[in-house]
What does this fold into?
Amino acid sequence: MKLLAKIAMVASFLYYCAGFSWLWFGQMIGAHNEVWDTFGFPAQAASPPLWSMVAGLTFTLIGMAGLLYAYLGVWRILDGGSGQDFRALARRLHMIAKGLFGFWLGYNLVTGVTQFLIVSGFESTEGFDFGYDPLDTDVLFLILSIALFAIANVMHRAWEAEEENKLFL
It folds into this structure.
């Protein structure tokens, strides 16, 4: 199971990197309709303004960095096995929580803000469907992140109690 989880993390991260690279860097080679298609907008004759593309890429990198950080935390938990002390487990759960929060933030910036930025120069956005929903299923990443922060804090307190008990023995 540990190997399967690691393969899934590597494969999904590479898949997302490839997809987002094509989305943002494909503009340089003329694949400008990828951005319009991603947001469900009508095809346009040109790419969005460069500054909006840079913002979208930045938001994507925030999300991907968060995902990578969360995966790193999971990877370390898997490598630590059942012999991990509470302190190490708390640190790793905290990593996962921060990473999931970063992924949620980046995803919402891309899906919520970027779609408005790429059409900001248009005189009319008639026919454009801005389907951003902040309470879509991705809110689960935020909820899970908050729960993992709480669990990590409890684990840290458990480590402190364990250390205190060692002093008495």
